[in-house]
Design brief:
The chain has 265 residues and is an alpha/beta fold. The longest helix is centred in the middle third of the chain and has 20 residues, at 83-102. The strands form two sheets. The chain has a seven-stranded mixed β-sheet with strand order 1-2-3-4-6-8-11, with helices on both faces. Helix content is 49%, strand content 17%. The chain folds into two domains: 2-207, 2-enoyl-CoA Hydratase, Chain A, domain 1 (Alpha-Beta Complex), CATH 3.90.226.10; 210-264.
Length: 265
């Protein structure tokens, strides 16, 4: 394990999960809240990991069993006395989210407890999310005279405009079960089943072509910002790029050979 002050990186040592890395945000005295120091360490770690060509998948979680990320550090927020400082801080929050969206491999959000404000935005920046039954999720910024910003812009695509308005304008917390119903998380499990649920997704990742997954995430990232016709064209371009190497032909032939062998039995 590579351990920073507030971000711990662990490469999965299990032979069945090659190329999987676990990143834990550890600001345990403040429910793993994001401050400028935590953000910088997190962005640096994720961007460095993303350079590894052998990387297959990433799991992001919070330290302990109580909180994924309890939001932005209120102490630091309370000391932002002018627009320039506020801009710098919130840009950092965006960078923490952006580095996950730009990570070349799938990112799983392992949501182990309270997930609020900036923490919910970071969760939304993950590619897929599994939460424990007791998790509470919310965007309370309006209660402190601030709007929810940066990656809260992802919410309409996940849960629709009506539910986005409900969450951002009311500032209420919702349960993990309600988040599942809305589409804010993909799965909810008992705390003791959280790691097994993550492992199920990891098993699918390691069974896939690394290059295929990377190209797929690259395309999904493009879809987020392109009009439909341009998104379709980008898919054509990526499909052509896929066949610059022999891997697709080899994998397809292997599948055909396997099917043929089964028919002979």
């Amino acid at each position: 394990m590579s351990t920073g002050t507030h971000v711990h990186v662990r490469h999965d040592a299990r032979s069945e999960f090659p190329g999987i890395v676990h990143v834990t945000i550890d600001n345990r005295a403040k429910l793993n809240a994001l401050n400028s120091v935590v953000i910088r360490e997190f962005v640096d770690a994720v961007e460095q990991l993303g350079k590894d060509p052998e990387l297959r998948g990433m799991v992001v979680t919070g330290w302990g069993e109580k909180s994924f990320i309890g939001g932005a550090d209120i102490q630091e927020l309370s000391q932002l006395q002018e627009p320039g400082a506020a801009r710098a801080f919130i840009t950092g929050v965006h960078e923490a989210c952006r580095c996950l969206r730009d990570c070349p491999v799938p990112v799983i959000g392992r949501v182990n407890g309270f997930t609020l404000g900036a923490g919910l935005e970071l969760m939304a920046a993950c590619d897929m999310r599994v939460a424990v039954t007791g998790a509470k999720l919310g965007m309370p910024e309006v209660r402190f005279g601030m709007p929810s910003v940066v990656e809260a812009a992802l919410f309409p695509g996940l849960i629709g405009w009506g539910r986005t308005r409900q969450m951002l304008l009311l500032g209420d917390m919702i349960s993990a079960e309600q988040a599942l119903q809305w589409g804010l998380v993909e799965r909810v499990v008992a705390p003791e089943a959280l790691d097994a649920a993550v492992d199920e997704w990891l098993a699918s990742m390691v069974a896939n072509s690394v290059r295929g997954m990377r190209l797929q995430k690259k395309l999904i990232r493009a879809w987020e910002t392109l009009p439909v016709e341009q998104a379709v064209q980008r898919g054509i371009d990526i499909f052509a790029e896929t066949h610059e190497v022999a891997e697709p032909r080899e994998l397809l032939q292997r599948f055909l050979d396997h099917q043929a062998a089964r028919k002979k039995k």
